Fold this sequence. Notes:
GO terms for molecular function: serine-type carboxypeptidase activity. It comes from Phaeodactylibacter luteus. The protein contains 14 helices and 16 strands. The two termini are 31 Å apart. It has helices spanning 2-21, 99-106, 164-182, 196-210, 238-253, 264-285, 291-305, 309-314, 321-328, 359-379, 419-428, 447-454, 461-464, 482-500, and strands at 34-43, 46-60, 66-77, 86-90, 109-111, 126-128, 138-143, 151-152, 189-194, 217-221, 334-336, 344-346, 408-409, 412-413, 433-439, 467-472. The chain folds into 2 domains: 32-228 and 366-500, 3-Layer(aba) Sandwich (Rossmann fold); 232-360, no CATH class. The chain is α/β, with parallel strands linked by helices. Strand 1 and strand 2 form a beta hairpin. Helix 3 (164-182) packs across helix 4, helix 4 crosses helix 11 (419-428) and helix 5 packs across helix 12.
Amino acid sequence: MLQKSMLFLVFAxxxxxxxxxxxxxxxxxxxxxxxxxxxxVTIEGQRISLDAEAGTLLLRDENDEPIAHFGYTYYQRQGGxxxxxxxFAFNGGPLSASIWLHLGILGPKRVVVNDPGYTGPxxxxxxxxxxATLDIADLVMIDPVGVGLxxxxxxxxxxxxxxxxxxxxxxxxxIEQFLIQEGRLNSPKYLLGxxxxxxxNAGLMKYxxxxxxxxxxxxxxxxxxxxxxxxxxxxxxxxxxxxLPTYAATAWYHGKTxxxxxxxxxxxxxxxxxxxxxxxxxxLKGDRLTAAERQSLGEKLSAYTGLSADFWQRANFRxxxxxxxxxxxxxxxxxxxxxxSRFTGVSPDGIGQRADRDPQSDAISAPYxxxxxxxxxxxxxVDPALTYTTGAYGREGFKWDWGHQGNYRWNAQAVxxxxxxxxxxxxxxxxxxxxxxxxxxxxxxxxYSVEHTINHLGLPAHIRDNxxxxxxxxxxxxxxxxxxxxxxxxDVSSFILETSGLK
Length: 503
């Protein structure tokens, strides 16, 4: 590994010098830094040693000009072959570091949290992650430019990376250059993204495939492909329709529906039917609903969601997610979680229209962030002088460009969607498989939105069958829920084994 480190340093210095000789007014680009260690994980009784790298790669643009120190953590099984699968994983945000997947389910260590309650203060427990897939695949955790250790260098600016297309391009460049650098181009390859990371994944599928780098599989955790579904925009009723089944799931969990005697999945089938056959036509009819129809619709919505019929009528049958969080348990002085509606927290504003906090985020953020930074500096050996940034929203000037090629009509952005990219990649590569993992209690990226998108990709049946849907009785980060951790491992491991030819 020492020889490899020297090669990294020589490559970085030569690139920096070349860039400087071409007239870099900012001076010499400092070399990327990589910190090496050996990590261990025990999975199903098997002790596995891993060569770990944490640091940055000197990312180059299409003209080989340095543009970023791109942060990553790489786990490679000792003695593994180049034919071993490799997974590139990232979180969402749109600009969040990868600590959540890293310490939640994918890395060799996981942080213990009190699901579905609040975790106490430090010390936090970092334990062996028996639910990882490191026994069958190597792993690269990616931190996009703006988070982790990733920063622009040379003539590049933050804005060159902060946008839908800019993000797809830079991560695509990183994956290609990393595969070349590590001699892994011919390995079975996978993308794994969570939340906005699935939106990114759909674009990356097409971007990489168009460059001749086809994935064996793509894993979507808590997915969204059409951002319009989440925005509750004026005059756009689709948001209310796709959120309704998750409102129902949340109310069922908290004992607020008229269907408590039904099993959850049977109840959600009924909620889907209601949304399609009764709720959608009513919203389409709009102000033409009669008084009797309004009364009937309010009562039915109340039965499914636990909110009063009067509340639904006063909301004109359109309740936004933040309003639902606040209203469901208002009488108990509590609000439910956005990322995971099993979590509840104190609602300080008893008359507020919308929740001003997310109990699940409040409950787990401190343990994840603190435990990861402890692991990064103490376990992975990263220089403490390097600042690791967990989210970009605190960065001065942070602004995301939501424009995406193909989303425009009449020179205006009509949608915010990477669903067409996914459909294009699947159509061009009939061997490509997609695994989508959905949390029933996820009120950030709701499962019925994903189902709607998949049902409207316009794919022939034999291609659509390449999309596999799995469901969890948990939320956005289903891996905080112990039974879902085991299911996650089983679903992802089986998917990788089947699509890599190892099974």
